[in-house]
Amino acid sequence: MIHVQMIRGNYSMINTYQNCNYQAYRRYVTKDVQYIESAKQRMGNDGHAAVDKRLASGTLLPAEFAKYEPVCQTLDAYKPQTELRLGIRENGEPCGYYDADCWINCRVDVWCEVPGSGLIVDWKWAKRREDPFELRVNALLLYARNPELRSIKGRYFWANDGAAGELGSEHDCSDVERTAAELDSIMSHIENSAAMNYWPKREGPLCAYCNVLDCEFNKHPDKGNGRDNDHAAAGQRDALRSTMEVQRGGSQS
User: Fold this and answer.
1) Do the beta carbons of residue 108 and residue 138 sit within 8 Å?
2) Which of 23, 44, 93, 158 has the most crowded Cβ, counting Cβ within 10 A?
3) What is the rounded distance in angstroms from the CA atom of residue 102 to the CA atom of residue 93?
4) What whole-number distance in Å separates Cα of residue 11 and Cα of residue 30?
5) Inter-helix orientation angle 132-145/176-196, to 10°
């Protein structure tokens, strides 16, 4: 049985759990599925790394991402902090991103702070979908680090929209007590799933993008090319090794 304290929460895990409990279990609990990076994801990861280096150290943007220079120049004026790795304990106290008792962690792409307030900017290379909850989670952890904050706004930057990317809607993320209550409720559901070891599968449109290839509902293009047998093969290897260890112990007694 897996205890919830072994599961460190973050927005990606929570979002996955809400879409499909079983996928969250495989990705974040057993961690036995292979990450499959698509060409679009690779482009997004490369772009994210490029703008981070540009803002953090002034490194010139590669030619394919040079169109984002104007937004970088705008952010420069606010002395942005980039790639902040933050964590909180279950009691709301700040902690390290990797601490053993970390309850929720996050990475803040860009944080621009002035006394008492600040702006979160989150780079997105995916299809536009304004979900402020991820920004609100970031805001909660920023507030834990600096309780003097009174106003926290958040905006996504949609890199694939327009000629040079577009800023999304402005979201007020200041109500950190509400966010904390929502996180507590969601993590309680995850704790129940762990306590009962009950992670039901949920068929839906996102099955076409899921990397749990051995699920019967999976519709990923890579399903059936042999990768979906990896999990079963690993299980067989573990079973054989376990048997051989028992046999080895018996022969030595």
Assistant:
1) yes
2) 23
3) 9
4) 18
5) 100
What is the maximum span of the chain, computed from C-alpha positions, in angstroms? Answer: 73
Q: Which residues pair with 154 in a beta bridge?
A: 120, 171
Q: Please, what is the Cα angle at 11 between 90 and 235, to 5 degrees?
A: 95
Any bridge partners for residue 10, and if so which?
Answer: none
For residue 236, what is the enclosing H or E element?
Answer: helix 230-252
CA end-to-end span of the chain, whole Å?
A: 30
User: How is the chain split into domains, by residue range?
Assistant: 4-196, 205-252
Q: Could you tell me which residue, 195 or 251, shows the higher pLDDT?
A: 195
**H-helix or E-strand spanning residue 140:** helix 132-145
Provide the strand spans (E) within the chain: 81-88, 94-95, 104-114, 117-124, 151-158, 166-167, 171-172
Pull the structure tokens for residue 112: 């621009």
pLDDT in tens, 29-71: 999 987 777 888 899 999 999 999 999 999 999 999 999 999 9
Amino acid symbol at 110: V
Pairwise CA distance, residues 188 & 206, whole Å = 24
Distance of CA 58 to the CA centre of its chain: 26
Q: Which of 169, 190, 176, 53 is nearest to 110 (CA)?
A: 53
Question: 4-196: which CATH architecture?
Answer: Alpha-Beta Complex (3.90)
